[in-house]
Amino acid sequence: MLTRRALITRGSAAGAGVVFLWPRPAEAEAEAAKPVLATTKSIPVGGGKIVQGKYVITQPRKGVYKCFSAKCTHQGCTVASVSRGTINCPCHGSKFSASTGAVVNGPAKKPLAGKKIKVSKGKIRLA
């Protein structure tokens, strides 16, 4: 037979487990609602990927992901590729660092705009 004290103690312990089953806080839900831009597996080390014609996501070093605007700062063309450590614009030959977005080769004079991202569970989202 359970004593009143044992029943209360067991009930409290069971109730504590239920707390973890409540819905996630609004902040976590909002983050999960942001669309996935890419998976980490789809971004090669030393390379990158153009996403939705708006973003370029790179992985300059294993496990380090960067995101920039895919709009070239020279005349607004969309960059087309990432290779050999640079993000490349097909219109006039501008090249940008895949690590920092800085201009490596003109005619562009301004770096690509950086975008904040969040990498979680193999998924890359805007922060």
From TrEMBL:
Which terms in the GO cellular component ontology are assigned?
membrane
Q: Which UniProt keywords apply?
A: 2Fe-2S, Disulfide bond, Iron, Iron-sulfur, Metal-binding
Looking up Gene3D superfamilies in the UniProt record yields: Rieske [2Fe-2S] iron-sulphur domain (2.102.10.10)
Q: Needs which cofactor? A: [2Fe-2S] cluster
Q: Name one GO molecular function term.
A: 2 iron, 2 sulfur cluster binding
Q: Where is the Rieske domain?
A: 35-126
> What Pfam families does the annotation carry?
Rieske (PF00355)
* Classification via PROSITE patterns: RIESKE, TAT
Describe its function: Iron-sulfur subunit of the cytochrome bc1 complex, an essential component of the respiratory electron transport chain required for ATP synthesis. The bc1 complex catalyzes the oxidation of menaquinol and the reduction of cytochrome c in the respiratory chain. The bc1 complex operates through a Q-cycle mechanism that couples electron transfer to generation of the proton gradient that drives ATP synthesis.
PANTHER family xrefs = CYTOCHROME B-C1 COMPLEX SUBUNIT RIESKE, MITOCHONDRIAL
Q: What is this protein called?
A: Cytochrome bc1 complex Rieske iron-sulfur subunit
Q: Which organism is it from?
A: Nonomuraea jabiensis
